Amino acid sequence: MAENNHMDIQKGHDWLENRGMNLRAIILVDGFDRELQEAWDRAGIFTHPDDRLVLLGMAGSSLWQFLKENNCLGDDRFDQFSTEASLEVSRLFWGDQSPRIIYPGNTLIPLQQIGRSLGWGAPSPLGLDINPQYGPWFAYRAAFLTQSLLPVTNAFRIRQSPCDRCVKKPCLSNCPASALRSGALPDLNACVSRRIEDQTGCGLACQSRLACPVGREWRYSEEQLNYHGERSFRSLTRWIKRDDKIL
Prior knowledge:
globular
């Protein structure tokens, strides 16, 4: 098991922060609660008792800006950079030459459940989790396993979702498809149908998400919104064609 000194650990965090990975957590896998452990087991991820899970995320557009400034412009720029950053921070600062990258990848890791256990997110009518500070403008970017002795992050659950305190709930009234309902999952068929019909509107950007008053100062730039929207729409159309969906 690799050992680290305090300075190397902090340098790794600073290195990630300077690249826009402004959400970071380290979790002892053996310390999962029962519900999270069951979800983890369903994903079929083999772990050792001393494994630590490192979760990296972004809030706002700082990572997007870093990628632009460093000419990381590929279609999979976020996934590619997140994988490379996970490997590099481990090798340069955290004493692990071969961390196990589990996200990005094909493993169905329970990211939302892990994030909720850390206090990163709480349920919202959008179907996306919401953060009390960043609102819906955050995302999980990488997860990897290491046996380096990294200090474990103090975890907590958000006791009350910001949505519970929101009186006007503009996310509901601003959905052109009327697909959102308070306290319930979105109507996926209504949402998808609207996105297909309105490719330059709902197809690219969720109007309900844009209307959320929480964390407005962290909202992605228009350029970043278009990037995510175009990728999401392409994935949606592939999903419809692959499964011959009739909406």
